[in-house]
Amino acid sequence: MATMADVARSAGVSVATVSHVLNDTRPVLPRTRQAVLDAIEELGYTPNTLARSLVTSRTRSIGLAVSAISNPYFTEILQGVEAAAVEHGYSLLIADPHDDPGHERKVVQLLHERRVDGMIVAPSADPRDLVAYLGRHRVPAVFLDRILDVPEGEEAPRFDQVCAESAEPTTRLVTHLSGLGHRRIGLVAGRPGLSTTRERITGYRHGLAAAGLPYDERLLVHGDSEAAGGERAAAALLSLAVPPTALVTANNAMTIGALRALRDRGLSVPGDLALCCFDDFAWADLFSPRLTAVAQPSRELGAEAVGLLLERLAAPDRPVRTLRLPCAFVHRTSCGCPEQPRQASAKAHERNLP
Fold first, then answer.
1. pLDDT band at 307 (very low <50, low <70, confident <90, very high)
2. Which of 5, 125, 188, 352 could lock onto 223 through a cystine, CB 3.0 to 4.6 A?
């Protein structure tokens, strides 16, 4: 197995220069750096990550704490995080806090004890212990998807944050349904306390107001951001004396639950109830009818979170940033609209393929 000394001899430089190239601990002339990299490639040298971490106090690893890793939305975020981390030479340690504040605090501590250079966290609905731990230990961290309100008395958030827009896209779903003539539009909202839940409720109410429709608290039921909760919430809405004629579901897991509730009652979409959902996912286009949805830039969110964290590691004292990425409205047929011409044409083309 090749050693750092072998690389130094092959490149005609000192072992210290090889170390500087590997660890970015001192500027090295471009031609010298290239000679070292060429020698590493030729000899098949693999750096000793543990030894490097003892020299640099860095492990080149990132901790990722997100709940419901089985959720396709978070799976795509994970793919974005992993791709960006690997691109920059970082490994990834993953933990699932299960949306439980106590467990969240434990898994973040475990990641910290494994000497990750920084963390990317999708915080729970009650992240006080999380924030206190990260702040007390000065852990570089980025909050992902769910962001925190600015603490009272402070002018800016304490941590870098990245999320998708939630309010405006939800407003668009509601106004789209109202434009189709619906006057009783229900919302299956997410887990109380999450920023995504608050913002999508805000968007729902703005959509009702824009359409001149009153807000009826009976038409908003929390589905706790999971399929079983979405099924219970949709069942409650369908059991009202005057049920909604249209429904907005606030994430993909709750959409699946709502569809189960409709199936169990023998109701069809959009014949008996129009449906629009937040979160597009791989099989949304395969349902019959095809689901009209808001598509979040999930992989981009993961990549941006890594970028923010690396910026923080490089410049610990730079101002805190919050990034919001736009979503896309994907117009299909579950809302009751006819197939879009371009999509219909594409489907006809697919049927004619050999």
1. very high
2. 188
